[in-house]
Design brief:
Length: about 140
């Protein structure tokens, strides 16, 4: 439902968090667009989403709509394609025989692995061993 409303505004749904914090229910919606999002787009999306949530009587105390940020989580293959060539940080499962935290350049992916350049070396990390991939901007 949220994704449908965002698509009408030509916005991409990146992630949704729905959780209780300090006894209050937070609904966080992260949106993006190829050229980025601004405050007006977030406000527009907030109004559209709120209307749908209220119609469906979905309970929440706070609704937050924002961009995914500079260190956004990369979840979909579309993300991996879009951010190929960017610096990423990968966290792996404890059972992974290599490093638990990897920072390198995202080179590509296939059905089984994510490829990263790590200190001039190619490292292929099995997808099932990855817990999270985030952009890792340098400041």
């Amino acid at each position: 439902m949220v994704e449908e409303r965002l698509n009408e505004l030509e916005l991409e749904l990146v992630n949704i968090e729905y959780r209780k914090e300090n006894k209050e229910q937070f609904l966080r919606v992260f949106i993006d667009k190829d050229n980025g999002v601004d405050l007006d787009m977030c406000s527009q999306a907030n109004r559209a989403i709120k209307e749908s949530l209220d119609e469906q009587e979905i309970p929440y105390d706070y609704l937050e709509v924002s961009s995914p940020g500079l260190d956004r989580v990369l979840k979909k293959e579309r993300d991996w394609e879009r951010f190929s060539g960017y610096r990423v940080r990968i966290k792996t499962r404890k059972s992974f025989p290599g490093p638990q935290r990897i920072t390198g350049i995202l080179l590509g992916f296939d059905s089984e692995n994510i490829a990263v350049e790590l200190e001039g070396e190619l490292l292929k990390v099995p997808r099932e061993m990855i817990t999270i991939i985030r952009l890792h901007p340098e400041f």
